[in-house]
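Example record

The entry below shows one chain as it appears in the dataset: sequence first, then structure tokens.
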Amino acid sequence: MFKIFFLVHFLLLLLLNFSNAEKIDEINITGNERISKDTIIIFGEMNLEEDFNNQKINKILKKLYDTNFFEDIKIELKNNALNIIVVENPIIQEVRILGIKANKLKEPLFEAIKLKKNNSFNEYLVKKDRDLILNILKTNGFYFADIKLEKIENQNNTVSLIYNVDLGKKAKIRKIKFIGDKKYKNRKLFRIIASEEDKFWKFISNKKLLDQRRIELDARLLENYYRNKGFYMVKVNSTFAEFLDDGMFDLTFNINAGEKFFFNKLKLDIPTDYNKNNFSRIESLFEKLKDEPYSYNAIKKILKEVEIIALQDEYDSINAKVEENIVGKNKLDFTIFIDEMEKHLVQRINILGNNITREDVIRNNLSLDEGDTFNKILHNKSINNLKALGFFKSVNSEVNQGTDKNTKVVNIEVEEKPTGEISAGAGIGTSGTMLGFAVKENNFLGRGIKFSTNLELTDESIRGKFSVANPNFKGSDQSVFANIESSETNRLTAFGYKTTKTGFSLGSRFEYFENVFLSPSISTYYESLKTDSSASETLKKQKGTYFDSDFDYLIDYDKRNQKFQTSDGYRSRFSQSIPIVSDSYGLMNGYEFNFYEELMDEMISSFTFYAKTINSVTGDDVRISERLYMPSRKLRGFQRGKVGPVDSDDYVGGNYVSSLNFSATLPNVMPNWQTADFSVFFDAGNVWGVDYSSSVDNSNTIRSAAGISLDWHTPVGPLSFSFANALTKASTDKTESFRFNLGTTF
């Protein structure tokens, strides 16, 4: 019975609708000032040839209201005419946000709001914008912010919107709690997260402020830490902030670590036509992991190794997928499937955002070119190459489908930054100070050409150097460079001699084999050595002028995963300086080895071995200015040139120098500062071997020092800082506990 009633009712409504439908002869629109009649007709999708009924009129109303141009709309169908009366929304003449001084906070608010200048005013959208601003402020720690909205009506049906913001107190974290099945002590977990408790000595830090984004980051950091410790099923179930009083909150993390899981079976599944021997390193990594606690970082290392193998063995379109299965209570089986994907050609590479840097400079640093088979590894290498240039604040890439299914279009967008730098530095030690000044430009005229000039002053010496390098000479991968340098060391008062040295060098650098770079150069120098009556007999024998011309070369084998923020791999460099024409033939050899490894998430360790020798080809004494000194960066904690053999009180250098350096970046010390590296280090080394006199104090004591360092690209420029404490030293050594360098960009 009900169904029959409903059907009859529906048919009656339908009949009524059609009975009321009528064609119109004209459309009349009144009340419009800015928006033309024709525009309104188009917006409403109205046509004189259509039948108009209540349903059609309701659709017109909805379409016109959806434009947000009208405050009120009335539609009447009368005498074959459609009469529309509109009241237009006012236009927003300006939008102001008052009460916020910091542009870095105000600018995101202007970007986020929907209603901006020249938009139509809408009461509902304005309220949504107000709520949006409040949410952003709360995300930035202003939990007690309030906004009073002011609408000022102007002439010509325009309005001004003013958001009067009262930021209130910033919400601070009084206490951070960890509850649940947490496995680790609180002091350990505190080192993992980014948020901090409010302490009086942390008056600069903003990590003590309650920030929802930082809290979400903390939850991810905790889960990542636990997973790398074997807790595969870990879950930070909830985080909540409890308001106390006076703007303070207690922040609580509820952690459920679960059972510790261990690697069980690890299997590598590769295509039958692949050479299994190429993947033998993967099998050995599997063996080492068996029965070890689960670690996500270990899986990442294996996948990275797969990528390296794919690149080396020219598997252009390799794809690696990981499948994991829980076995029993706490065991994990892993299978890494390696498939050969359908090959795609790079149809086009678009470079975006480079207003200063020439496009050819960017393209010369790409390992992937148009027409190549798309390779994810080479694509990632290209992005890292661009980051390593130091020209860009950010480098982002997007890979899209080309005009057909077998092509790819790569969009690389860069955000440029100032590449000029003015810096000043100082070292403070036991016997005075060192001052240094430098001016650099790393992207001259957007061509990637590098200019640098530096000046170093001490109590006894002055050194100056000017360098220019073109990394893409004539559009090639070959780099050419030139250096001009001059120095003067005045030790007449103390040791009876003075040296001046001036010269230049010209050279090139290019990739000879894959990852093997060769850098040959020619150097020419003129030197004058003056002595007085107080000089030693050995020095008096070396008095005079000298001309030296040498052939120098460097072999650089670079297997680092990336030049920018290296986290894995190694680099080996051998150099030699061979005299061509010289008044004192000295053969110099040098070697340096760098090794990098990620010990844990965000903790990068590095090891460096450095050695250099110089010996006379003719058997004569090595000239005092040619002898070797310990580079200051290789043995922190000691003054430059004030380590090694001493003749009376004169540091005369040696024939041999070597050093070992260990350092490790500390994770989560400054987790929100991606441009800062905080490290601990240990340095050891020595300078020895003097061929001209047995009376020289030639101590074999191994010098060593330990300390902390900070490298930070601040908003005003790069800052480097180190504090070192000498652990072992000779009685004649001069220490230097503190060293810093601060620059500004332009």
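Notes for this example: The first helix runs from residue 2 to 20. The chain has a mean pLDDT of 81.
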